[in-house]
Amino acid sequence: MTVGPSTAMRAVAPERSERIRAMLREHKVRARIFGGSALSDPGWTMLLDLMLSHLEGRQTYLTSLCVASGLPTTNAKRRVTQLITDGLVQRENDRSDRRRVLLTLTDRGLEGLSAYLDQIERR
């Protein structure tokens, strides 16, 4: 399990965190203007939230990620299950409270998001 950002990732973390926050704000604007159309992708929002948590060394719990996605809880949990099946996200029971589930990006998810952000930041 990936615990925190690498040394190289920490060097770009503040700028990258702000870029991700801007992307999340853009998503909220699209969702507000266009409603529940295909222009809204809760799975992508979840991945961005997990990347931001990774960069900032924070933990993300399943319930908070579901709320942040804007989907009904059942639909959000299905989306998380799909991200896990796709190998982008992993889940772990919280050792201090077995009722809570921690979510993190897998190495594959982290590498994919890093590569994506590297490419769009170069433009």
From TrEMBL:
Keywords: DNA-binding. It comes from Vineibacter terrae. SUPFAM superfamilies: Winged helix' DNA-binding domain. It comes from the Bacteria. This is Winged helix DNA-binding protein. Transmembrane segments: none annotated. InterPro entries: Tscrpt_reg_MarR-type_CS, WH-like_DNA-bd_sf, WH_DNA-bd_sf. One of its GO terms (molecular function) is DNA binding.
